Amino acid sequence: MKMNKFVIGGLLVLGAVVFLIWSSTAATSEYFLTIDELKAKDSDVTGRNLRVSGAVIGDTIQYDPQTLTLTFEVAHVPGDPALINDEGGLAEALHQAVLDPTRARLKIVYVGPKPDLLRHEAQAIVTGKLGEDGIFYADELLLKCPTKYEEAVPEQAASN
Amino acid sequence: MIADFGYGVLMVAFLAALYSVIAAAYGELNKRPALVESARRAMLLTWPLLTLTAGVLVYLLVNDHYEVQFVYEVTSRSMPLYLKITAWWGGQAGSLLFWSWLMSAFTSLVTLRKWERDREFLPWVIVVGGITMAFFLGMNVFFENPFAKLYQTFDGNISAFTLQPANSILFSPSDGRGLNPLLRHPGMIIHPPMLYLGFVSFVIPYAFAIAALVTGRTDDRWIRITRRWTLWAWLFLSAGLVLGGRWAYDVLGWGGYWGWDPVEIAAFMPWLTGTAFLHSVMIQEKRGMFKHWNMLLIILTYDLVIFGTFLTRSGVLSSVHSFAQSAIGPLFFAFIGITLITSVALIIYRWDMLKSETQMTSMLSREALFLLNNLLFMGILVVCFWGVIYPLISELFTGQKVTVGPPFYERATSPLFAALMLLMGVAPLSAWGHSTVKTLGRAVWKPALGAALVTAVLALTYTQNVIALIGFFLVALVMLVTLYEYGRGALARQRSQGENLFTAFWNLTGRNRRRYGGYIIHLSMMLMAIGILGIELFQVETQGTIAIGDSLELSGYTIKYREVASWDNPDAGVNYTRAVVEVYDRNGNLLGNLHPRKDFYFDSQQPMTIPGQLASLKDEVYVLLIDWEPINQESTTFKIFVNPLVNWLWLGSLLFLVGVITAAWPDKDPERVTVRAGKRMEQTSAAD
Lengths: 160, 688
Hints:
The complex is a heterodimer. Chain A is an alpha+beta fold. Chain A has one domain: CATH 2.40.50.140. Helix content of chain A is 31%, strand content 29%. A five-stranded mixed beta barrel of chain A has the order 2-4-5-7-6. The radius of gyration of chain A is 21 Å and the shape is elongated. In chain A, 34% of the residues are buried. By secondary structure, chain B is α+β, with helices and mostly antiparallel strands. Chain B has 20 helices and 14 strands. In chain B, the strands form three sheets. In chain B, strands 6, 7, 8, 9, 10 and 11 form a six-stranded antiparallel sheet that branches. A four-stranded antiparallel sheet of chain B has the order 5-14-13-12. The radius of gyration of chain B is 28 Å and the shape is flat. The interface between A and B is large, with 58 and 68 residues.
């Protein structure tokens, strides 16, 4: 009998944790889409919380310091790691993505300081919503430069 | 060549670690003490060997040996000497070596201790330490050789090889790629070693736990031996986390300190299990309970440490999904899997020996509240783990990758953190063994009333935000309870020993450093909580483009733009742009000058935004230089944050150091004092 109340107490804590995880997941989860997937779903996902990843095209970066409005375009990068590997790693996949004019592109609008890491061929991971106008309005902008720490070989050499 | 020499020594260290594992296990199982002794010596040899290896690597880094791939990737000619040295842990290969080097230092320290009373643990501690070290060294030897050199083969390709391939010539770039400027910050230079010190020192209690399981000596001896290790491990890990936060706050320019990034979470998870472990071992020492649980906690901590090491330094990994991409990823997972299964199998094997000596009877007893504390820490761990693996799970079951971000973690963990704070307030007042609502209520009502008064005053004068008020109530409760407990002890001592209050405080702490160190840590956590509540709930921001002489206003502060200047530093390869702004308070008093900057690094084409920060206990004014016109200085854009109370977070972390050092400071003769402390505790627990 003595142990029962501890078992019940433990289950209550467990239940509370499960509830917190379940309700928070339900309330805050975001679809993580590639740009191709986003274009395919389009109106289905308009207004939903989304997270999209793509390769930054350097020429399209525009920044209006008056309003802190940043706009740029990203090109489709495969979401499947196996496909990225086939292209020769993330750095190469990003490079291919910006070179290829047939890749689907997405225009991003973000208001805030221009991140230091925003540059040509960086990987942008944006969180926000797709507007009716087909422009992605980002609340959060995360940038990864695959060259940040290491790269297999110097730039002038082909990858093996 | 010197790089090849370094690789050779690394190889010898790897073999020495492997030998010590085999010799220790074989010698112990076949009753051949001479073999165990030779294993111990082989283990002692790894530290000088790895120091030599590291010395070679640092020599190459400092002397611009860019034909070595690692040197090429993490340094450049324009970097100052100290950055070239610290570039040792600036990339994956080097940081793995750094890990092994620390590991060898710690295992050597452990094998040098006096072993008379614990002879049977020694071989198994060597085995666990040796396997861990051999794994990391193996990574360096076979996959991530820091001494690999660049060779150009006949077809013009340049790649890194350990041995020179046929028909190739050595390729020496004239300059390296250099460390990313964002990482050239004091916080980022000390942060990885701190984190690693914490990670590595958690291996020692784990090694003793496994030794206890293998030998069947499952009393609390292993916990007593490793108590200080655990505290130091925890100190370093915590310091590493705080320094990482401070780096983000100073460098990343969004006025935040913690982003719930998978990499941050990976370092946070072993901290959670380690903190739970620190608390629950006390129950085993005092009441002989939770033995299985403690074993499980230290095993989890160890494997989360391995996981964290892998995640924090693999650079390009952006999500759980990409783990498998790295060559060493699957090996790390295999190692984690094997150690986890083996360790848990050992617990099951020794299940009956780990039975509790006493039963828990009362829901409000100290031990029950400690159990609840552990459950809450585990709850936070599960939330974190769920957040990291959720994309994987969702894709597996629905075919659609769904992720969670900071709002998920904030929402799911904040009630758990609040519950932990409540426990921090109540638990020190509950009694061991048996406690009722009545006895606990009698102890709690006064501090609770005090906290309610504080909250009421804050509601009238500072904020009406309900979440903030709940938070401040809990902070006040914990602080009052802790100070009350501390003060009561000091006053009693003042009366009985005739000491003045300060001496009484000092001696009280000295007599039971773990307890009072713990109280200082609780207080420091509350200071940090004030800072977190402040910046999370009350941060305000504005931005504007203004001309020289104009000003912006935010939250009672006036920020006046004075001047801007831009100049090159060719030696460092940097262009600096620095603005001068003045900050005035509501009454027009000048509070200080700030110098927000924008640096531009030519070699990496990387800008870096450095905020100007005006710190006070009330607020921090945090000004970013966003953009400026080179020709016409009439319009410069600033972004301004006012971060209320945030400096309590940093102050709290300093007090935290004081608390942990108080609790972990070595006694004059560790062995004897441990025994005495053990006896004294039995007496006090009997008296309770």
